[in-house]
Amino acid sequence: TSLDQFESIRFSEVVTKNRKRWFKTERGWVSESDVRAPTPTEPPPEVQPDERWIDVEIDQQVVTAYRGATPLFTALASTGKGTGKSERATPKGAHRIWVKLRTTDMDNLENEYAGRYYAIEEVPWVLFFKKGYGLHGTFWHRRFGRRQSHGCVNLTPRAAERFFHWASPRLPAGWSAVIPTQYDPGTLVRVR
């Protein structure tokens, strides 16, 4: 089945054979080329023992919510098509959410060097973590699990909403945007 057809599966065992991971499911063994699964990881040093944080794993194209060292939930993602320091690469490293927006318009129309322009209104559930890079809901493609974006971390609208409400700072009822404070800091987002 292609990655355009999403299905959540449970696996009971993982083995590595010839540098490739295999997952044992109810239906049998499945190759890592047919699924996306997070790679277990330790919290970054900036995270307190029980703090919430988000792990963006570019190789697997997944995003995982953690509390301390415990993974809570995972979603497929589409990160930037660029590599290294390219403008279209998702910036690696540890960043903190600096603003949450229920919706925002996104475009690159002011970039005179853009090879292709885009303008999308009312992008939902936006968590900006470094300048104009963020996690957000995406309704204009279904290529989750593959690099697709201009640098942001694309999630299904449903997954983006879950991360949005889970991450800090908390958005007060009736508000459409919020920035972190010293009492309610932005959730750490690590891109690796």
Give a verbal description of the structure.
With 192 residues, the chain is mostly beta strands. The protein contains 1 helix and 13 strands, in the order βββββββββββαββ. It has one helix at residues 157-166; strands at residues 11-17, 20-25, 28-31, 52-57, 62-67, 70-76, 93-96, 99-107, 119-130, 133-137, 153-155, 177-178, 188-191. β9 (119-130) and β10 (133-137) form a beta hairpin. It is globular and about 50 Å long.
Q: DSSP strand (E) fraction?
A: 35-45%
Task: Determine the structural class based on helices, strands and strand pairing.
Answer: mainly beta
The SSE string, one letter per element, is EEEEEEEEEEEHEE
- How many strand units? 13
- The portion of residues assigned to helices is under 10%
Strands in their spatial order, largest beta sheet: 6-5-4-13-7
| Shape verdict | globular
Spans with pLDDT under 50 lasting ≥5 residues?
Answer: none
Most strands sheet: 5 strands, mixed
Q: How far is the N terminus from the C terminus? A: 27 Å
Question: Quick check: average pLDDT?
Answer: 92
Number of helices: 1
Rg computed from alpha carbons, rounded to a whole number of angstroms: 17 Å
